[in-house]
Write a structure and sequence with these properties.
This protein is of the alpha+beta class. The chain has one domain (3-209): 3-Layer(aba) Sandwich (Glutaredoxin), CATH 3.40.30.10. The chain has helices at residues 15-29, 56-64, 66-82, 99-110, 116-128, 137-146, 151-158, 161-176, 199-209; strands at residues 3-10, 35-42, 54-55, 94-95, 184-187, 191-194. A hairpin with a 3-residue loop joins β5 and β6 (191-194). The chain is globular, with a radius of gyration of 17 Å. 32% of the residues are buried.
């Protein structure tokens, strides 16, 4: 059986990362004979976000301007629908600092019998579909429990400064490799693909690398 290793560099607040995940999954479904190992690496779109986050509408407006922010969000909702995803921004939604969410992902990666991709899915869904605050420790605890992580271990990890330092070091390592945007997909440690590529493009690459 062919084996493929895929590193996914992403940030849970990135809408294209969620869409890219879904498109990759559709492409992999076309190659059931390929054994796939997926690893998640951290990236922060807004590393200067304060720990308490910001109002999401105000944050987007500050980046893009109100009119353009609205158009971008409307376009993302439509694009997401095409992939079977429902994006929604509820009143009062916040843009979080995602460092704690990445710490949680690193714990999932290191925990046997826990699927880090399943955690990525619930983080994406919580932010993009439910407008939950991924900077809220109570939210992260609940989402972690949904994929089988132990609550006491999660609490300890989220209170461990060293765990945060390790993730920050990972983010620096990703940047040092020239991966400066998300989503990025690295196949077999050699072939890097940027952006949420169409399903056919992912499928063609998987076919070539699975020979």
């Amino acid at each position: 059986m062919a084996r493929l290793e895929i590193e996914i560099v992403s940030d849970p607040v990135c809408p294209w990362c969620y869409i890219g995940k879904r498109r990759l999954e559709q492409a992999l479904a076309r190659h059931p004979q390929t054994q796939v190992a997926i690893r998640w690496s951290p990236f922060q779109l807004s590393p200067d976000m304060p720990p308490e986050g910001r109002d999401r509408a105000e944050h987007y407006a500050a980046i893009f301007g109100e009119d353009r922010a609205r158009l971008i969000q409307e376009s993302m909702v439509e694009t997401a629908q095409g992939e079977g995803l429902k994006f929604a921004t509820k009143p009062g939604a916040r843009s979080p600092n995602t460092l704690a969410a990445h710490v949680l992902m690193s714990l999932a990666e290191a925990t046997p019998d826990v699927d880090a991709s399943a955690l990525a899915e619930v983080l994406f869904h919580a932010h993009h579909a439910e407008s939950e605050d991924l900077g809220d420790p109570a939210v992260l605890l609940r989402l972690a429990a949904a994929v089988g992580l132990d609550e006491e271990i999660v609490q300890s990890h989220l209170n461990d400064p060293q765990a945060f330092e390790q993730v920050l070091a990972q983010i620096d390592q990703v940047a040092a490799r020239g991966l400066n945007g998300v989503p990025s997909f690295v196949f077999n440690g050699r072939y890097a693909v940027s952006g949420a590529q169409p399903v056919d493009a992912f499928a063609d690459l998987i076919a070539r690398l699975s020979v």
